[in-house]
Amino acid sequence: MNRMTSMRMDDMTIALNECRRFVKKEIRDQVLSADSAADQAWAKAIWNKSTALDLPGLLVPEANQGVEASPLYCALLLDVIAGDCAGIASLFAVHFSACLALLKMEAGSRYSVLQGIFQDIEKAAPFISLILPSETEAPALTLSFTNNQPVLAGRSPLAAGAWMADYFLVFPTADESAGEVHCCLVHRKTPGVSIGPTAQLPGLKVNHFAPVVFDQTPIDPDLFLSNSDPGRILFTAAQEGLYGFTAAMAMGTARRALEKAIAYAEARYQFGKTIINHGEIRRILGEMRMKLCVGTAAYTNWFSPPPLPLPHAALEAGLTKAYCTDAALEIILDAIQIHGGYGYLHDYGLEKSMRDAKVLQLLGGSNPRRHIQAVVTGNS
Fold it and tell me: What are phi and psi of 378, to 5 degrees?
């Protein structure tokens, strides 16, 4: 397998170009029909083909048959994939976020857990779905103990890629605890696990979101990860990783919309000249590019933050996700406006991007405005 540890910029560029070729060959020409059909089988096939580029094991240590690439590289890769299909990218984002949580485990436990998941990664790429607790609703999943055996019960919030998951990384609340979050890894075939109906979301349609039902599901003690590591630490790693990866996907979706808008403006004539030479169109394109550049800087700096001795300079994952997803939707709406009526046609792909961007705002929970309020009031 290709190894991308300690990647130099030149190596990263080469790897991303390889990914672009993969996207062009396997995704670009089929994405609109797959979106219309909400084709999960197509998404699963793409996931399986991605093993040729080692994508499912990017964050996994080399000792566990992985690549041990950086989270920043994963974010850049999601930017590339989301330019053509944010639905496919979101599957990788959820899986990568679960991997980030597992990497926060104590070294000995981490090795044995990852070895159990990824031991045959060259033959079959396991997919880990992520089940985060809702921050606005009462705990949906509870953990109890019967003769020291952890047991999981309840119906989860919507889980990305639930129907194609091999494992679920779950953060339940214990019955006797005061809101303490635990963490456990559950194999799809564990007794008591079933998948609810697919949610009919407007975007990311090839990634089927569905609740997962746990009916007194026994948890393997070796996969009850709170035994050795506080669940809150693993939860924070997963949630913040998902926020950062969602920001990257939003910018990739917006980047493609800007490219389409520029190409259309260069080809479309009005009043004797191409519309890119009209002042108002140039102003709109300039604002779109400004938002894209700032958003890209935001998510890349969050994954690789420079030391800045300034108040309110350190980015938060929630702030980054909020800005990037909001900016992406604005950029895409402007791209549709430049296209006029054509922008709303499915064949141009922009209306799909608009739907995807709207759902990205909700991925991992709605945009966390409380973070913005905390910064404004100086309580961050």
Answer: 80, 20
**d(C-alpha 223, C-alpha 230), whole Å:** 14
pLDDT surpasses 80 at 269: yes
219 and 264, same domain (yes or no)? no
Q: What is the model's pLDDT at position 6?
A: 46
Compute the Cα dihedral for 316, 361, 231, 91 and give only its sign: negative
> What total number of domains does the chain contain?
3
- The answer on 370 and 265 residing in a single domain is yes
3 found inside a domain: no
Helix (H, G, I), strand (E, B) or coil at 290: helix
Give the span between the Cα atoms of 332 and 334, in whole angstroms.
Answer: 5
* Residue 137 lies inside a defined structural domain of this protein: yes
* Residues linked to residue 236 through DSSP beta bridges, in sequence order: none
Residues 108 and 202 in one domain: no
- pTM across the whole model: 0.92
* C-alpha span between 311 and 150 (Å, rounded): 44
Amino acid at 360: L
CATH code of residue 319: 1.20.140.10
The 3-state secondary structure of 37-73 reads: HCCHHHHHHHHHHHHHHCHHHCCCCHHHCCCCCCHHH
- The pLDDT value given to residue 146: 84
Q: Are 361 and 324 in contact (CB under 8 A)?
A: no
Task: Please indicate, yes or no, whether residues 251 and 347 belong to a single structural domain of this protein.
Answer: yes
Domain boundary among 202, 232, 262: 232
Which of 3-7, 96-100, 116-120 is predicted least confidently? 3-7
| Residue 21 domain flag | yes
* 309 assigned to some structural domain: yes
Residue 231: band (very low, low, confident or very high) from pLDDT cuts 50, 70, 90: confident
* Residues 5 and 68 sit within 8 Å (Cβ to Cβ): yes
**Are residues 28 and 20 in contact, defined by beta-carbon separation less than 8 angstroms?**
no
pLDDT digits (tens, 9 = 90+) for 109-168: 898 999 989 987 767 789 999 999 876 666 689 898 888 889 999 999 999 999 999 999
